[in-house]
Amino acid sequence: xxxxxxxxxxxxxxxxxxxxxxxxxxxxxxxxxxxxxxxxxxxxxxxxxxxxxxxxxxxxxxxxxxxxxxxxxxxxxxxxxxxxxxxxxxxxxxxxxxxxxxxxxxxxxxxxxxxxxxxxxxxxxxxxxxxxxxxxxxxxxxxxxxxxxxxxxxxxxxxxxxxxxxxxxxxxxxxxxxxxxxxxxxxxxxxxxxxxxxxxxxxxxxxxxxxxxxxxxxxxxxxxxxxxxxxxxxx
Length: 235
Prior knowledge:
This protein is an alpha/beta fold. It contains nine helices and six strands. The protein is 38% helix and 15% strand.
């Protein structure tokens, strides 16, 4: 949401199957920042669109929108990406740097570093395996997954996101010029501290890795607002 007097612009990238609604409270909590949440195709206000099949082209589209925002009003820009959103945010940041725009800070939350990502063409993301993974990660209530109307609404884009991520290969790229902070829940079943620490390779700027109480969706109960705000003070 536009805030003319905000010190920084924070752009949030949701997890696989996520929507901007996941970050709906962040604008108020990060009061000194102008907060935006990315909406991927096929959900929320873009429900009528076909979900994206390739991650990097989608990231390039997002980068064009970020450039447009910067042209309207330039200000330091922060990316916060969670899980799949961290990979989308990273590829968006790479695309921006090619256009001469460097972020103020990049937060990679609940995600392995890009070079650890490998395509998995054998992955079968049917409704049953998706539901099992969602339950393992802790991001979805079991009661919702037993609701046929809910499953019919969300499974098409959740499945598309999972398949898109399974086809992604993290190639080595020039390191980013911004500071990078990797965040991981101490009980995350899918991302280890070592895998989160590997994000250090993605930057030539300052790097920090932080563990936080909770599982893969630690930020649902304890959003890292103080860490994001503190990154500005530490510049």
